[in-house]
Amino acid sequence: MPVLRRLFPFNEDGLLPTFRLLSVLLAVLLLAAAPARAQTAAAPAIDATQIEQASSDLDRASGQLNAIRERVERYKDDDARLVELKIEAEALNRTILAISVATRPRLEAIKARQTELGDPPAEGAPAEAAVVVEERKKLAAERNEINALTGEAENLSIEATKLSNRITEIRRRLFTDAILKRTDINTALFTEASGALTNETATLGRTATAWLQFVWKFKRMQLLGAVALSLVAALVLLSGGYRLFSPVITRAVQQQKPHYITRLSVAFWSTILPSIAVGAFAGTSYFFLDTFNVLRSDIAPIASVALGVMVAIFFVAQLANAVLSPGDGHWRLVRVSDRGAQLLWLLIFSMAIVNGADYFLGTISEVLGSPVVLTVVKSFFASIIIGALLVVTAFIKPVLHQGETPDAQGRPWPRSIFVLLILTGLGLIFASLLGYVGMARFIATQIVVTGAIVVTMYIGFLSGRAVSAPNAFAETAVGKRLEERFGLGQVTLDQVGLAAGLSIYLLIFVFFVPLVLLQWGFQVADIESWAYRIFTEIRIGSITISLIGIFAGILLFVAGLLITRWFQKWVDGNVLARSQVDAGVRNSVRTAVGYAGVALAGLVGISAAGINLSSLALVAGALSLGIGFGLQNIVSNFVSGLILLAERPFKVGDWVVAGTTEGFVRRISVRATEIETFQRQTVIVPNSVLINGQVGNWTHRNKLGRIDMAISVHASNDPRRVQEILTEVVRGQQGLLRNPEPTVVFQAFSSATLDFEIRAFLADILNGTGVKSDLRAAALERFRAEGIAIGAPAAAEVPIKISPEGADLITRLLDQATRENRRPTAGRRRKPAEDGPKT
């Protein structure tokens, strides 16, 4: 019977384990914060009364351990009770360790005080004061008491661990004995089972009839109300699921030849959503029937199992329909013929019916107190029928080759699948005939139920991988709707698709893995214990990690980060903006608030994660060592950034000159400063360079500045006149300050130029380029109007006079030189002909 209870596991109260698992996960999330807080809380010093309390707690724990040991011996054949006792033993072990840990701070304080007092004076040395001697005695006595308590706690913890391991060994032995137990298959067995079946049928008829009459007479409205509420809950869940996932399914249905990824998605969600809706109907039906007191104690387990078997059969049938698609070959996930798909669906559904009926009938026998032999015979026939169905499955011909249409004639299974089906089916039949009914029944259940769960998980993984593939989510109806509604880009849609794929993976792991474990003989309490350990007590050496604590720490850090960002914007946009603070101060305040908020959020997150901040001293030591080896520049830039933010030698918007870099400061961070040049190039300058080097700031205290403009004219001009003209031009120029008064300086002269320099002050030095341009244009216009030469004047043309006789002589000389120049050239042209062969 324990094996049969594992096939479709329900607890004794008739509650579905799936819903209990969900409640367990929620409970773990709520309770896991307590251990995290306990780890970070500093234990106060304990006094004598607290030592007595700790000793009393250990005595009480010892008594509880003995009681658990006695109950283990009493219920050593009840697997469910053994699971509960194992959980109690583990919880008691944690309590014992907590009692021991609570004494450690006081023990460390005693050791520190004894170290301060030092060793007692040697023989012959001056005696200590009576107060010191008395303190030594009290400290030694208290230390001995704490050591005794710690030793007792360790012994009790070892005993609790041994008891827990013994319970595990007993459960393993029970499972093995139940699976390998052999029953003699003979005529007497079937004769006894026949008589028991007659009695059970009569008892069941009387029980069901009496209950139906009672309900219809006294609980009619409660029954109808429970069914109506259950249907409403199922319909709400189903409609909500289809509203959420129907865009993908609806789009796919309109396609004639859908893509394989689309078929995977449709198969997964068309299996999960209806199955969840049917499961919700079953769970809410039982809940409302039990809440309205419609179910009696003898009917409740039967109703619970009937609802559970209905959900399981529906799930298997829905999965087979999604994978095989007997009515439409274009949606089929496997390459089989139409005829083969119909036969396979019928065989799978038949095996699910046989398996569910066997479990349901076994539950009836258990509730009515029928002999065990009747349950054995039922499982015997069920295993033989499932084995025969597997053998029949091996001989059908559903396989199609690549490119063949679904309506083509199928071919036999590949040899490996054929042999596997034959061996499995015959193995079930022979195991049942040899008397190993429990083993055959267990294997048959795993083939039907676990196989369906594993196939669903595989389809879900494929669907999640398809959704999270690059550019895949953007092509779905949901992705297109998000793109139209929120204007999301391709990168954002890919990130959403990745998150959706990971969510599908998480759903499969959280929902289906516990179902597989339940099918393999584990109890709900086992999964509860494992979930609690995984989320709260992952031990790595002496370090205990809590996943829930880490998750809570991350959430608090993110929340603190969001609050910091909001507070930054609020301070900058409301307080500083209304105070008319310049951009540099606003940037410094905003940066300081940001770093302070991030640091505070980090401390809160680390504390919430259950990490002791004192353990960060090791990290600080390693960081110091790293700074000594290779992080000097980073730390130097960081400290320099803090100095820049505090002293503010320049601020955002200032015009600075740092080496060869000149431009406006755009951003000051703790590592580097961004300077935007006049060509709109952003230069990242390390802060240490700005602190250690010379930096020119044109707008440090104010924007007042002087411009110097050099002007040169030709040396032939009158310098005083040029100086007067330039002075008039400068005084008439807009944008220049009258106090200090602009000046024109005669700087230098040479044989070619006279050099002047205009010196004038501006209220805003940032406008210097435009003012210089206007000033040069005005000066050039006045120079041209006043006839001031900028360059050297052009030389005058001087005419040359020559007599006719001289001209004739020059002409003859030129002609003679020309003839003499031509004569050698002609001689060189005739020479090759003279030296050539004679004819």
Automatic annotation (TrEMBL):
Region (Disordered): 814-839
Main subcellular location of this protein, as a coarse class: membrane
Keyword flag NAD: no
Signal peptide start and end residues: 1-38
Keywords in alphabetical order: Cell membrane, Coiled coil, Membrane, Signal, Transmembrane, Transmembrane helix
Sequence intervals crossing the membrane: 223-245, 266-289, 301-323, 343-361, 373-396, 417-437, 443-461, 496-520, 540-563, 592-611, 617-645
Domain Mechanosensitive ion channel MscS C-terminal: residue ranges: 708-790
Membrane topology type: Multi-pass membrane protein
Annotated InterPro entries: LSM_dom_sf, MS_channel_C, MscS-like_channel, MscS_beta-dom_sf, MscS_channel_2nd, MscS_channel_C_sf, MscS_channel_CS, MscS_channel_TM-2
Domain of life: Bacteria
Subcellular locations according to the entry: Cell membrane
Domain Mechanosensitive ion channel MscS positions: 633-700
Coiled coil feature spans: 51-95, 132-173
PANTHER family: MECHANOSENSITIVE CHANNEL MSCK, POTASSIUM CHANNEL RELATED
Family: Belongs to the MscS (TC 1.A.23) family.
Full protein name: Cation transporter
Organism taxonomic ancestry: Bacteria, Pseudomonadati, Pseudomonadota, Alphaproteobacteria, Hyphomicrobiales
